[in-house]
Amino acid sequence: MQRQLLLGDEAVGLGAVHAGLSGVYGYPGTPSTEIFEFVERYAKKVGNIHAFWSTNEKVAYEEALGMSWAGKRALVCMKHVGLNVAADAFMNSAITGTNGGLVVAVADDPGMHSSQNEQDSRYYAQFALIPCLEPHDQQECYDMMFDAFELSEALSTPVMIRLVTRIAHSRSAVVTVPEPRAQNDLEPNRDIKKWTLLPSNARVQYQHLTEKQPELLRQAEESRYNTLTLVGKKGVIVCGLAANYFYENVADDHDLSVLTLRHYPLPTAKIRTLVEHVDELLVLEDGYPLVESTIRGLFGLQNVTVKGRMTGELPRTGELNPDLVRSALGLAPLDTAREPQESIAGRPPSLCTGCPHTDTFKALNEALDTFDNPQVFSDIGCYTLAALPPLEAIHSCVAMGASIGMAAGAAHAGYSPAVAAIGDSTFSHGGITPLLSAVQQGVNLNVIVVDNSTVGMTGTQRSMSTGQTLDQIVLGTGIDPAHMRIIEPLPKNHDANVQVIREELSYQGPSVIIARRACLEAIKRHKVS
Amino acid sequence: MQENIILAGVGGQGILSIAYVVDNAALDAGLQFKQAEVHGMSQRGGAVQSHLRYSDQPIHSDLIPLGRADMVLSVEPLEVLRYWHYLAPDGWVVTSVTPYVNIPDYPPIDDLLEELATFANLVLVDAGQVARAAGNMRAQNMVVLGAASNQIELTEDQLLKHVETLFLRKGEKVVEVNRRAFSFGRAVGGFYRGLNDRGVGPLEALALCRRLDPASIDPVHAEAWASFAAAEPNKLREILAGDGAIACDQVTALA
Lengths: 529, 255
Known about the structure:
Chain A has 19 helices and 21 strands. Chain A has about 525 residues and is α/β, with parallel strands linked by helices. In chain A, the strands form five sheets. Chain A has a seven-stranded mixed sheet with strand order 3-2-4-5-7-6-12, with helices on both faces. Chain B is α/β, with parallel strands linked by helices. Chain B is built from eleven helices and six strands. The N and C termini of chain B lie far apart (about 40 Å).
C-alpha cells in the first residue's frame, strides 16, 4: 500500500491521471493552480497527457470539451471566478453532453484568501443540471476522480469537483491504486445534432438533460458519499469539508442525527427522512447557504427549526473553522481558547524588492501628479498590490481584463485621463477584446501593459502574450504604431519613462505603453532574461 | 498522541520547507497528518502561517482549534504574537529572534523580546547568527526547526532524512549547509533549554547563546554555564558585554 503526501489539489490531479486522463486544461488561479501543475509535472515525466496552460478558462473549457468529443478523458481546472469566464462553454456543455469523461475541478475560496469574492460553485452545478462531488479530505479528492469520470461517461454530462481553499491547500497522505486505468481510445462522437446547438437541436438536447435528472438524483440518493445516521432529535447536515470541523468537535458517542452530503444534486429523500426525524436541524456548509436556504424554502418548515449561516449560528460570510462550528453546535468554547491580540502590526503582502512594477507605478504616479486626484483602473495580478502603500497607484480591481473596459467606459463618460494598468498574462486572458474595442472606437484612453514575461502571482507560469507576441497583438488591434510605446521600468530610466507617459497622456486617442522587464522571481526560477 | 504545530513567518522564509520535513518525517513514522498552508497572494512578503497536525489517531480538522496548539514555531519574532491565541496553556513557543523588518510600524525589538520572554515554555534562537555560522543566511528556517526538534515527538534522524531529501536537487553543498543549520539549531535549542531549566532567564540565556560560537554549542555544557551564571553573575555580565566568539566548552576554564 503506497501512501503519498499530497495537497488536495495534487490528489485531484493524481486521481485524474490514474483514472485514465488524456488532457488537463486550465488557467492559473489560487487555490486551483496546483491541480494543473501536478499533472503537468507528471506529464513531463511520463508523457502521453496533454498539459499546456490555456489563455483563459473559457478556452481551457472548450479545449477540454473537444478532448471529450474525441472520446478521451479531460480535466479542466480553475478557481471559482474562472468559472464565470468559462460559463458560456460550461453551461452549454451540459446541453450538448459529453463523450469521453469531462470533469471540471473548481476551487472556491471562502474567506477570500486570494480572491475578489467567495462565490459558491455548487450553484453553477445546480444551474447547469450536472452532478457535483465535494470531497472532505485528500483521499476523497483522489478517489472521487474515478467516480467523477465514471459518472460523466455514464450520464454523458460534465461532472464538477468542488474544492475549497482548506482542502485544495492542505496536505495529507493518500493511498493510491496499484494499477492506473488506461486512457480511452480516440473515438470521436460524430452525432452532429448533439453538438450543434441550433435552436431546433438545442431544444431536444435540453429536453434530454432534464430527462437525465431523475437518474442524477437516484445516484445521489444511493451515493456512498451521502450517508444518513438517525439518532437523536437534533440533526446536522455536514457538507463537504464541514464534516472535518464537525467531527473535530463531537465525541464518538454523540446522539446527533447526521447526514453527510458530498454528492449533489441534493438527495431529496434522505433529507426528507432526516427532516421528519428531527425537530432541530443545523446545516454546516463552507460557502453560501445553498443547502440551508433550499431546505428552509421561502417560508420555512412547519415542525423543524433550521439553523445555519442565515440565522446567525454561523457567520453569513467567510470560511468555517473548528471554533465557529463548535459554537454553532451549541458547545461551550474550548477552555483553552483565547482572543487574538489586536494591536500587532499588520504585515500585508507586498511587491518584491526590485520588482519592475514598482518602477512602472512610480513613474506613472509622477506622470499623473499634474492631475487632480487621478484614478487608475487596474486588474488582477501582483501589480494589484500597487493599491497598497507606499505606491497607492491603482484604484480598481474587478475582473480579469476589466481595467481596459472600465477605462473605456469612463472615457465615454468624459473622464480624462482614462488610464488602465494590466499585466501581460491578464491581457491575453481578458484584455485583448476590450482593447480591440477601444481602438476601433477611437477611445481616448491610455493602457499600460506591465509585461513581466510571466504569470507572477500564481507562481511564474508561462504567459501567452509577452514580448514580441504582445507587441504584435497590440498593433493588430489597429492602433497608431506611434502610440504604442515601450519603456523599460528601471530606476535609471525613471525620468525618461515619466516623459513617455506624459506624452501619451496628452495624446487624444487610444495609446498603449508597454512597460517591459522580466519578473525577478521568474528569472530566478526559470533563468529567463 | 497528537501534536499540533502552528508554523509562522514571512513569505519567502521557507515555512513550507519546514512543513515538508515534518510532514515527511511523520509519514515515515506511520502517523496520520494534515497540514494546511497558504499560497498565492499571501506569499509576497506578507505574514504566512501553516497549521500542521500529526497523530497516531485519525485527524479531522485541517485547522487547529483555538488554544490547542502544542507549539508555535516561528522563523520571525513578531509573527509569534499573531498566533499566540492558538497556543495551549502548556504549549511551546520556539522562535527566531532575528527580525524581518519590511513594515514601517515594526515594534522596537527589545520590547518584542520582553514580550516573548513572558511565555513559560520558550526557546529563543538567533537564527540569523546560527544560519550564518552554518554557511547560509537562508537556512534560518532549518535552524528554528532544529531548535524545535527537541520538543517534538519525531526523532532527529527522521527529521534530518528529509532535510536531505528536500535539498537534494540543489546539490550536496546546499544539503550540507542545511543539515548543519538543523544540527546547530538543535544544539542551541537544547543548550538554551538547559540554561533556562537551571534558572537562567530567557533573555540572559539568549544573550549567552549569542556570545558563543554557534558551531561549538553543546547542551552538555548548559549545567556548567548555569552554575557559573549563578555563582559569578558579574563575571558573566563581563563576558556578555565582550566581543569575539567564545567556545562553549570554555566554561570549564572559567569555572
